[in-house]
Amino acid sequence: MTPVDSSFRPHRVVVLALDGLLPFELGIPQRIFRRARDVEGRHLYEVLTCGVRGPGPVATDADFAVLVPHGPEALATADTVIVPSSYELGPVYEEGRLTPELATALAHIRPGTRLVAICTGGYVLAAAGYLDGRPATTHWASAENFQRLFPDVRVDADVLFVDDGDVLTSAGVAAGIDLCLHLLRRDHGTAVANDVARHTVVPPYRDGGQAQYIERPLPQPQRAGTAAAREWALGRLHEPIQLRDMAEREAMSVRTFTRRFREEVGVSPGQWLTRQRVERARYLLESSDLSIDQVAQDAGFGTAQSMRQHLQAVLGVTPTAYRRTFRTGGTGGTEGTGGSGGTDDAGGIDATGGVARSGRGEEAEAAA
Hints:
Mean pLDDT: 84
Number of helices: 14
Shape: globular
Structural class: alpha/beta
Oligomer: single chain
Order of helices and strands: EHEEEEHHEHEHEEEHHHHHHHHH
Strand content: 5-15%
């Protein structure tokens, strides 16, 4: 008979439901975190929902209310607190200050609790002072007002989410899914996040940032896209890939292809390719016994040193440290001592020549 691990305790997520909330965003933490299980089938998280005043109905922006089972004292039990957006933030949104009722509720949060905001929920964290001097994001349509009210916050309106360690913020609505999946990856690795994403029928990682969702003129009918080139590149991540090669797949000039790619994906071809190679390296580090040098070759970085630079820039850890954290029973591998990475030909986008930026939304930059 298998002994029961009495020390196991799921990570507690407490979601703060505010009047005027969006039901879709309120449901994101429940859908994402409650699906996550370990190899023994145990829930890795428990999710509670609380109100500002106490148990009872909370108005939404729809034609129904939700019945919240817990009061604000539940915040004191949280490992992670999530604040979804609301259309009735009042002085928080208009003046950048908390109401006495909301301030009293937030006072229950223990020091060291991880704080997460979805969309305009970031206004609540900012008004409480949690974002002072930190990077953050919010819905692109609210970013200008957000920066005006909270000048001490470093607002980035281009990304889908910002991970600043113990405080995380996301852009609007569906970006809350991106952020919660990111937390799953951070807490328990890519395999757990990918499993939840599959069952939620969403991509485990969305390319680009908010810029691709800002209103702009519709493209011309019958206009060629770049999807075929992306699919072609994904099957050849281990090979050097040049920008002109991808452009030729779509019968476009390099200039036209680059412009169309940015319009469709929100980032340059080089940024996108680096992101895919980082994701490939993460998967191999978690799921295989390949050495660090072999992972670097298979993911298309060319050398272990180049891969190490990209993973440290995007994830903040070395390949060996990442494997040690996310692969139970992994061999750990040995970090290689290869050269500084490949050099690009003219118009090249091979990730080994790129420069990665640590991830507010895990977005990697390359030369293209």
